[in-house]
Amino acid sequence: MMLRPSDVDQIITHSLVWVIRHPDHPRSYDICDEIARASKTMILQFMQEAGRL
Questions:
Q1: Nearest CA to 32 among 19, 17, 13?
Q2: pLDDT tens-digit profile of 13-42?
Q3: Which of 12, 13, 25, 30 has the highest Cβ tally under 10 A?
Q4: Is the dihedral of CA 1, 6, 43, 51 positive or negative?
Q5: Is the pTM of this model over 0.85?
Q6: Cα of 41 vs its chain's centroid, Å
Q7: 18 in Cβ contact with 31 (< 8 Å)
Q8: How far is Cα 19 from Cα 27, in angstroms, rounded to an integer?
């Protein structure tokens, strides 16, 4: 199953809103870092599949 760009955007948006609303949670910064790494990985994968990398 492929995610649409709007689905990915919603996942990132909701995750980052959660991080902002829970700054004292012990995993807040880890979750933010994981989102950034996963986003980079997805973008690179899409670029590779499109033949742009």
A1: 19
A2: 888 899 999 999 999 989 889 988 888 888
A3: 12
A4: positive
A5: no
A6: 9
A7: yes
A8: 9
What is the CA 6 to chain-centroid distance, rounded?
12
Give residue for tokens 């948006």: 13
Could you please report the per-residue DSSP string of 36-53? HHHHHHHHHHHHHHTT--
CA dist., res. 17 & res. 5, Å (int): 18
8-state DSSP, 12: H
CA-CA distance, 11 to 50, in Å (whole number)?
A: 23
Residue whose entry in the numeric block shows the structure tokens 């649409």: 4
